[in-house]
Specification:
The complex is a heterodimer of chains A (112) and B (112). Chain A is an all-beta fold and 112 residues long. Chain A contains no helices and 11 strands. In chain A, strands 2, 4, 5, 6, 9, 10 and 11 form a 7-stranded mixed sheet that branches. Chain A has a 4-stranded antiparallel sheet with strand order 1-3-8-7, with no helix packed on it. In chain B, strands 2, 4, 5, 9, 10 and 11 form a 6-stranded mixed sheet that branches. Chain B has a 5-stranded antiparallel sheet with strand order 1-3-8-7-6, with no helix packed on it. Classes of the chains: A mainly beta (112), B mainly beta (112). The interface between A and B is medium-sized, with 24 and 23 residues.
Chain lengths: 112, 112
């Protein structure tokens, strides 16, 4: 299994609070991704990183920010959580361009 | 905009009853088509990458095929442990970082 750890695995919080999710990898891969998965939608890309301090937006980036200060860690922050951000969040990593993305086991986030 | 449609949404098979899952796609220049398996509470697990029409990949009871408009995941003599949601994703030429566009998946249940 790819060495990807997401934390926390479950979180319940209130509307308006800040939330940070962490993705940690031990594969030294260049690319890291954050997705959300909701019923009726495929996995949707939020943000991705192509190197330390290099990030870009995905298709559903509004309300989210990311940071990558080390190769192994990619953080996703919800500055002021809303109920529409209740979802399961997955981190993925990828090495070379001809390799597939590999996923962590997700964080289930509930915003009340 | 890249699009992926998977059918059927759900499929129930008896053990040993072979069938196929469909993934139809439109993409601005296909760089790769990916199949993943997802178990409840887990992240997607990589199965196959297909790059060009006519290509086939096999793994145990699974075989993936690709045409210019769709991909099929054939399941031969399935067992209950093959029960999972199967996801299809495409990577097009546009977009940096090898972004993937996912379908909503086919939920497969194999019964004894």
């Amino acid at each position: 299994d790819a060495g990807i750890t997401q934390s926390p695995r479950h979180k319940v919080t209130e509307t308006g609070t800040p939330v940070t999710l962490r993705c940690h990898q031990t594969e030294n891969h260049r690319y890291m991704y954050w997705y959300r998965q909701d019923p009726g939608h495929g996995l949707r890309l939020i943000h991705y990183s192509y190197g330390v301090k290099d990030t870009d937006k995905g298709e559903v980036s509004d309300g989210y920010s990311v940071s990558r200060s080390k190769t192994e860690d990619f953080l996703l922050t919800l500055e002021s959580a809303t109920s529409s951000q209740t979802s399961v969040y997955f981190c993925a990593i990828r090495g070379q361009s001809n390799q597939p993305q590999h996923f962590g086991d997700g964080t289930r986030l509930s915003i009340l | 905009e890249d699009q992926v449609t998977q059918s059927p949404e759900a499929l129930r098979l008896q053990e040993g009853e072979s069938s196929s899952l469909n993934c139809s796609y439109t993409v601005s220049g296909l760089r790769g088509l990916f199949w993943y398996r997802q178990d409840p509470g887990k992240g997607p697990e990589f199965l196959f990458t297909l790059y060009s029409a006519g290509e086939e990949k096999e793994k145990e009871r699974l075989k993936a095929t690709l045409t210019k408009k769709e991909s099929f995941l054939h399941i031969t003599a399935p067992k209950p442990e093959d029960s999972a949601t199967y996801l299809c994703a495409v990577q097009g030429l546009t977009g940096g970082g090898n972004k993937l566009t996912f379908g909503t998946g086919t939920q497969l249940k194999v019964e004894l």
